[in-house]
Amino acid sequence: MISAVVPVYNEEPVLEASLGALERFLSGCFGGDFEIVAVDDGSRDASVSILERLSKRLPLTILENSINLGKGATVRRGMLEARGELVFFTDADLSTPLSELDRFRDRFEQGADVVIGTRKHAEADIRAAQSRLRTIMGLGYTQVVNRLLGIGFSDYTCGFKAFRREAAQAIFSRSVVDGWSFDAEILFLAKRLGFQVAEVPVTWEDRPDSKVRLVRDTTRSFAELLAIRLRAARGGYGR
User: Fold this and answer.
1) Is the sign of the CA dihedral 212, 41, 9, 32 positive or negative?
2) Within-domain flag for 239
3) Which residues are CB-contacts of 223 (< 8 A; sequence separation ≥ 6)?
4) Were 134 and a residue from 105, 130, 178, 191 both cysteine, which residue would form a disulfide, CB within 3.0 to 4.6 Å?
């Protein structure tokens, strides 16, 4: 069984089309052996109403945060409550095509415990790039993560990552970051716990309605990275 976790925050414009596409893709690949877990993070638009309507015809589990907690908290909740032997999360706008899961499955068959999409590989297909400023800041963020946390991945923030159930439970039960640096934390934990992580170049398309606010979120992300390093140094993540 495979579980798809979709964090939702004010996704009214894309939600119905994206979940419909997700259902069709998973049904074609896995028959009826899948579930979709949508976690709403205190949306202020009609996202919850759309989810409730879709749940009448899709294999859809709806989880709701009573207030906006952050993407990290939202993904964590969905990943821990998902029931699949393979669990992946994807952004609601499907900026990475679902067909990339075929390449992910190949890596799982080769022994990977965690497979992540990367937009920074030479073989990645970027259909619509981010602005130059976002691209530069993204590269800088990657360098900061690798220096502070001592890990060496090329792309932390691509919202397309998959896990064997054992890895997902071990990693997300230990994660604490609620904000945008949760991706760095879960990959730090994957390495710390000895899981094999594979990066796969993906097709990707920037969406102009990004929820990221550069100055605010960059500042918070740096503070979160420092907190991860400090928590690890104090033994806060256990083994």
Assistant:
1) positive
2) no
3) none
4) 130
